[in-house]
Amino acid sequence: MQKFPMTVGGHAALETELKHLKSVERPEIINAISVARDHGDLSENAEYHAAKEKQGFIEGRIQELESKLALAQVIDTTTMSGDTVKFGATVTIVNEDTDEESTYQIVGEDEASVKLGKISITSPIARAMISKEVGDNFEVNAPGGAKGYEILAVKFA
Question: In this structure, are residues 94 and 149 in contact, taking their beta carbons and an 8 Å threshold?
Answer without folding.
Answer: yes
